[in-house]
Each structure stands twice: as structure tokens, then as C-alpha cells.
Amino acid sequence: MTTGTSFIGQDAAWREWLAAIASERMHHAWLLSGAKGLGKRAFARAAAAELVREPRGKAPDPATHPDVHILEHLPANDDEAKKKAEGKPFQTKRNITIDQVRQMQQRLTTRPTLGNRRAIIIDPADDLEKNAVNALLKSLEEPPVGTYFLLVTHQPGRLLPTIRSRCRILRFATLAPDELDAVIRRDVPEADSDARAAAISAAQGSPGMALTFVEQDLGGIHRLMLQILREGDADFHLRGALAGEMGARPTRERQLAALELARSVLVSELTGASRARQLKIIEAHGTLTRLNMQAPTYNFDAGLLIMEIGGLLASTAMPRETAR
């Protein structure tokens, strides 16, 4: 790879992008499609840097390059914006707004600043406001010369068919266990073998989720979740242990990671489950998905949240054999 960029498990996507850049008729809009946590965010930024890179020059920092424009979730309010400026964790707005799209479109009335190419990243395109989608469609229908769009999407079905039809799809695959292990060893070299094994088991092929599980130290929570699924929790003892493992004042990031972990362990239980149990798992997974969507902006009581997660897992527990 000309830039030295390496995407474990996604080398085919990167080769396809480099081949497109080198071609004479590169498509103007790309849909980076795949489950959350597969590295699409980092890929989009590296792809944009490669696109605007000067001949024989180094790939620039996409966050500061004048010809790379990134539309993503803004801070929720002024206080959260101050936290972002200070490098602290901050809450974001639910959607990417039409005002952000319009500001981007105003820039498209001028030529690229340093070269003849410009990259527009929308991350994630799934979260565009309805009016923002309609505004974006106009730019995709009549793109300025030298402007290329990279739309990150975790759920392409949520995008309008008119958006999807104007994009070339670049698919991102889940990673094999050995590839996940390589990612963890590279990014969290201090993680021990037990932590790596638990993260790989729970991540469902997602390197982003695997790294989150390791960094949030969710090994104990993972073991308890599996125990609840196997045994149930009629006396609430395991749910109490789960709350203790979660901690009295967990960060929002830890709460989100626990929700993702619970969803993953439920999915892993589907295979081989009876039809009746599968329906219970699907129902519990749907509730967890709703909670996961609300968690970034709702102020959940952490203790009640983990107890609810435990209760949902217990509701799908493997039925005990009837005594003879």
C-alpha cells in the first residue's frame, strides 16, 4: 500500500479504493457499508487523505486538511462543546443536521484549496435528518468536478434508495478470530490472554467492539451474562453480582459497552436454540437495541439499567430440564 496504511481484515476494500483513485473514471460517491465497529470510520479518513494526497507526498491529516470535510455528530450544546474543546468526553446531538449539509454545499461552490480533489465524509449517513438527506441528494445528483463523497453506513437499509443508487458500495466484512486477536495485540498490547479471549468471543467479528470490551474491562460482566443465560436468575443473585461488577458510577461509555455486550451474547445464543427460545431472544434483543439508541442522550440510572439488562438476559435463559 502506497501510504503504509494497514486495515486488518479489510485489505481488499483498501485495494479497491486505491485502484479506483488510480483509474481515469472514479465514481463520485461511495457507500462504506458494514456492521458498526468494523473500522469504517478510520477507513473513511485514511481514504480521504489518500484521495487528496499530493503526488509523491505524504498522506495529510484528514482532520485538518482544507479539502477534507467531515460531517459528523456535533456536541449537544455549548457545555458539551466546551468539553470537546478540552478533550473531554462529550454528548452529541442525535442527528447530522441540514445546516451541516448546507454549510458543506456552500464550500462546494469553490474549487478545492490545494489540489484538484475534495473529499466529503458523512459519518454516519444513517443519522442524517430527513431534510438533510434531501439536500444531500441534490449534491449527489450533480456533484462538482473533483468532489468525492464517502458515506459511512451501519444500516444501509435506512438510507433512501435514491441515495444508495448513486453510490458505489464498498463492503466491510466481519473479522475472523485470529484477525481480531491481531487487532487487540496491536492496539492494546497489555491485554492478557483471558481478556483477549473474552473480547473475541463477545465481539461477533467486530474489532471496534473487541477493543471496547478490552478497554472497558468487561471480562467479569461477560462471564456473568453468560451464566445468567445458562442458569437464569430466579433469586436475583446474579443480577446483583452483575451490578457490582458494573460499578457504582460507571461512565456512559461503560454503560454503552455493556449494552453492546448483552446484544452480542444474545445473538450468539440464537444458533441451536429452540423456536420458543429464539422468539424470546429476539424480543429481548429488540428491547436492548432500543435502550442502546436511547443511552447516548438519556440519563439512565446506571444501577437500574444493568438490572434491566440482567432481567432481559434472564428472560431468555435456557430452560432447566424437568425433573423426572
Automatic annotation (TrEMBL):
Record Gene3D superfamilies: P-loop containing nucleotide triphosphate hydrolases
GO biological process: DNA-templated DNA replication
GO cellular component, one term: DNA polymerase III complex
Domain of life: Bacteria
Family annotation (InterPro entries): DNA_Rep/Repair_Clamp_Loader (IPR050238), P-loop_NTPase (IPR027417)
Record-given protein name: DNA polymerase III subunit delta
